[in-house]
Every structure is written in C-alpha cells, then in structure tokens.
Amino acid sequence: MNFLEEIQSRILIADGAMGTLLYSHGIDRCFEELNLSKPEQIKSIHEAYIKAGADVIQTNTYGANYLKLSRYGLEDDIKRLNETAVHLAKQVAIDKNFVFGTIGGIRSFKKSAYSIEDLKRNFREQLYLILNANVDGLLLETYYDFEEITNVLKIARKETDTPIIANMSLHETGVLQDGTSLEKGLQHLADLGADVVGINCRLGPHHMIQSLEKVPLLDNAYLSAYPNGSFPGLDEGQITYETDESYFTQSALEFRKQGVRLIGGCCGTTPKHIEAISKAISQLPPITEKQVKEEREVISVLDREGRKYEPLQSIVKKKHSIIVELDPPKKLGIKKFLQGAKALKNTGIDALTLADNSLATPRISNIACGSLVKDQVDLRSLIHITCRDRNLIGLQSHLMGLHTLGLTDVLAVTGDPSKIGDFPGATSVYDLSSYDLISLIKQFNEGLSYSGKSLGEKTNFSVAAAFNPNVKHLDKAVKRLEKKITCGADYFMTQPIYSEEQIYKVYEETKNLEAPLYIGIMPLTSSRNAEFIHNEIPGIKISDSIREAMLKAGENKEQARKEGLAIAKSLIDTAYDLFNGIYLITPFLQYELTVELSTYIQQKERNVTHE
Ligand SMILES: Cc1cc2nc3c(=O)[nH]c(=O)nc-3n(C[C@H](O)[C@H](O)[C@H](O)COP(=O)(O)OP(=O)(O)OC[C@H]3O[C@@H](n4cnc5c(N)ncnc54)[C@H](O)[C@@H]3O)c2cc1C
Ligand SMILES: [Zn+2]
C-alpha cells in the first residue's frame, strides 16, 4: 500500500501529540530519550493512536537532532535514538498504517540564534539517520521560520523520493512569521516538492480553520492540519490544555470543508481527539472544489490622507538639510522646550529630533513632546526609539502610537545601556537589536506586525539609523551601515564628530552608500564639558587640538561658549562641502546655540545661491 495513492482517494487521519501526552504522564525531560529507557511507553502511545483511527503515525524523533539533544548532553546517542524510534513505531504499526519520521523545526521568534548553515547541518544528520531506518515518509513539523523550512525541504527532496509532509506553525491567523501569507507559503513548499503541505501546533482548530479559508486547493500537493488541543493554560505550574474532544468532531468536519486531506493533532491532543476526528470524517469523501475567502485590503496611510512631510531622505538627497536635536526635559515642565522648538523652527530647520531617554536617563516621553511640537509648533519631529526600554510588546504598541499621532519620522537605535544612567539597576530589555527594530518598522510599513498579523493599515515610517564613526576600524562600522540599509534604513545620523580629518574620512568611507548621512555637530560649552564628553561618553572622541582650544578659552562661560560655537562652525564648514545633511545637537536645552548654528548654515546657503 502506498501513501500517495491512499491520500489521492480519501481523507487520512494522523496521530496526535506525543510530547504533551508524555508530559501529562508526569515526564518532564528529553522525550526522545524515552525511546531507549521506556520503549514500552512510547509503543503504547503509538498503539493508542492507531486504535483511535490514525492511518499515519509519527516516530518519537521530533527533537532527536544534534542542536536539541545537546541541551541534555545526549548528542552522542543521536543514532540510537532515531533508529530505535523508527523501530518502535514499526513494531506497532499494522498493515494500514504509514510510519512517518518526524523532524522538528529549530528557529522560533529569535531568528538569529542559529545560522542557516548550522540548521542545514543539523537537519542533514537526522535526515540520514531516519531515512536509513526505512520510513514510509518524512514529517517536517513546527517550522515557524520560512527560511528554515524551505532550506531543509530542499535538502530532503534532493536526498529522497519518499513522501514528505511539510507543516509550518503560525503565531497569527493566516500569516507566517516573516509576513508571507499562508497561501503563498504553502504553494512554495509544494513547488519545492513537498507532497503534503500544511500547518501544525500553536493554533487550535478555530484559528487554523480561519487560516485555511484563504488557501485554495493546490494542484501539486494535498493540505494537512495538525491543530493543538487548545491554547495552553497553567495549573499550579503545570501546562494544561482543554480536553473537550467532542469539539474536534465539529472541527474535523470544517477542516474537511477547507479541503484538508490529512488531519491529526498537535500539542494537547490525545487519542480521544483523534478518535473524534476519525469518527467524524474517515467515511466522508474529500471535497474537490473550494471557494476561497477574499483577502481584505490593507489601506495605506498614503492612500488615506497623504504624508504631512516629504521624507527626510528625499529632501537631503536634493539639497542641504538641517535637523536639530532638542531633547525632552529631564524634569516636568515643557515651557522652555517649546520655546526652543519655536526658535529653531524660525531658523528654517527640517526637523526637531527627540532622543529616547539618552544616556539611559528618564526624560518626558519623546512621543508626548513630539506630538506637542507637531501640533503647537507645526514642525516635524523625529522620534528616537531605543531597544532598551521596551520589550517586543511595548515597541509595537509604541509604533502604533506614533502612527496614530502622525509621527512618521523615527530613528531606530540600540540605546545606551541602563547601567550608565540614573537607574543602573533598571533592566535593559533588548528583545530586538537595532537591525531587528529597523526591519520591524519596515514590516509595519507593509501593514504587518512582528508576528505577521495584519495591522489593518500600512504605516508610513521613514527610518533613520545611527552611525558611530568614532571607532578604531571605520570600515567595520561602515559594514554595519550596509547591514542596516539591507534591513531598511533610509538614512543615517552620526554621533557628533569633533575633528575635520574625521569628517573627511567618513566621507571617503561612505560616499558610495545609497543612503544619505546627516553629520552630527554638537557645540561644546566649556573645557569641562569637552573633557567629560571625550573621556566619559561612549562613542564620542574629541581631537586634541579642539580640547586644547577649549582649555585655552578658560573658565569664563561666555568666552568658552564663543569658542565652542567657533569650533562647531568650522566643523560645519567642512561638513557642508561634503554632505547635504547636518544634524545639530543642542547641549543642555541651550537652544540659543543651535539657533545660532542653524542660522549660520542658512546664511551659508544663501551666500552660495547668490554667488
Ligand atoms: C544619532 C544617534 C542618536 C542616538 N539616540 C539615542 C537615544 O535617543 N537614546 C539612547 O539611549 N541612545 C541613543 N544613541 C546611542 C546609541 O543607542 C548607542 O550609541 C548604541 O550603542 C549604538 O547605537 P546603534 O543603534 O548604532 O547600535 P548598533 O549599530 O546596533 O550597535 C550595537 C552595539 O554593537 C557594537 N558595535 C557598534 N559598532 C561597532 C563596531 N564598529 N565594531 C564592533 N562593535 C560595534 C557596540 O557594542 C554597540 O553598542 C544615539 C546614537 C546616535 C549615533
Ligand atoms: Zn505542538
């Protein structure tokens, strides 16, 4: 009997959970090790599923690969664990059963944990062991990461003609983790040679059925579904699932209506669930035609109301552009800040940039300040966002808030670590790196959340990224810029630079980049200020000649300010000739300084146009 012939003519039933069933029996360790230490228990689970009506059973090899076994120090047993698992399943399989060798996915949310090369090596080893033990087919399951499943599927298809079921897992209804729609994803797996494609784990029947409503019957593969019993709950520290098996009777009928040809169960399901599925549909013929539900259109903000400001990256590509940082106050009271914003606006700047608790010290929320600047000063705000203060939930809520307020210009940065700030004991979250944050914001522009869920609208963010050129190896820093561009960075803003030579170097190293730069210039206010910045602020270095000039200016505040402004103007002169973008940073809310510098640049601009 041949699996592909069988599935051609009828709906097949698969088995349910192995892991959660063992866990519910009080076992909380490496489940695959039980193939050796408790083979009878594994066999009895296979038997129970066969008795319940399963045509297809899967070997207890879900995590029997190097990366997962090494967490338990069991990597040296990999051969025996896989071979024994296949033998155990074959011992209990009866004539009508097909034994599929299972290989589980590795990546979940944290994509960067393993490289694709690591995953391919890991997969290959387990694949060979399972194929050598002679199975009726392969079951690839619980793949959240599309890049991972497509790569391993290609390997498997190249190595064997045996039937392959490829199941992916979804965090959200109808979309993969990277935003690919389920229908596109499944079609791609079918095109890569999987015989059955579908979904398993994480979602229960309700969301799986909803997900499948948009998936047509495919020409070159059958559909499968292995739903979880329910969402997991916690009962006195134990993970539990709802266990109303009768719910699976109705669900099975609906899966059939969606054209599913292979129905089993994943976490939280038991032989009783499989029995309910089998009773409901094993005698019914498969459907042959299906009406697919239409996708709701995602509205772009552009379509709805247009963008208030032209993106900075397109302004700065055409002409000189000034943006000025004026940080939200550290104490309550917003009067001076708003006065500064107005004064700067009058000098003709393109945006006010608002740091996100820079140096890990709390300030009035930059969203609140940015919104006031937009509404009361009628000036564009550029909101810095760090990965330090908000977890993945907070960051997404923050982005939705920015979109709602029409604050479409953002800078995505890692963020100074908490330990350097006013609250050194505070947690630095870093759920995402600056690269991930840039990608996330660009995914929002596609109308999708981190997990691929529709946001209902597309955002319209223009994303700046940070560039610290004050490093030993400028070429390495430029490599980071290239990676940030790949993630979606539209332009860059640099740390303040305090050396003309450094500005030239930055120009040479970055002149071929496709994203424009705003060069950071921050006026020094005193020699002490210069020494503090040079010695204590990570990522900023001041040239010896500038430090000497500030020292020479002496203790007199006015004299020091004048010298600081003169140095800044001279740096501006150099930057102005090489770059269109100038990013002025206001020290200590002393906006008169950046007003003077902005006016100086505007004056230069006028002189140049009159020449
Ligand atoms: C324009 C600008 C605005 C900023 N605004 C804020 C703000 O509002 N709030 C705030 O808290 N902080 C802010 N910062 C500071 C910034 O968060 C820190 O300097 C951070 O360490 C670097 O940010 P990033 O996003 O460029 O980091 P990434 O480029 O993601 O780098 C992260 C880490 O990688 C390492 N790294 C970076 N470059 C190299 C290299 N060349 N070689 C080896 N390792 C490297 C460093 O350990 C660095 O901390 C800003 C910085 C800039 C330049
Ligand atoms: Zn599962």
UniProtKB/TrEMBL annotation:
Binding site for Zn(2+): 201, 266-267
A Pfam entry, by short name: S-methyl_trans
GO biological process: methylation
Keyword Metal-binding: yes
Pathway: One-carbon metabolism; tetrahydrofolate interconversion
Cofactor requirements of the protein: Zn(2+); FAD
GO molecular function: methylenetetrahydrofolate reductase [NAD(P)H] activity; methyltransferase activity
Domain Hcy-binding: 1-281
InterPro entries xref list: FAD-linked_oxidoreductase-like, HCY_dom, HCY_dom_sf, Mehydrof_redctse-like
Database matches in NCBIfam families: PRK08645.1 (NF006396)
This protein's name: Bifunctional homocysteine S-methyltransferase/methylenetetrahydrofolate reductase
Species this protein is from: Metabacillus herbersteinensis
The organism's taxonomic lineage, starting at the top: Bacteria, Bacillati, Bacillota, Bacilli, Bacillales
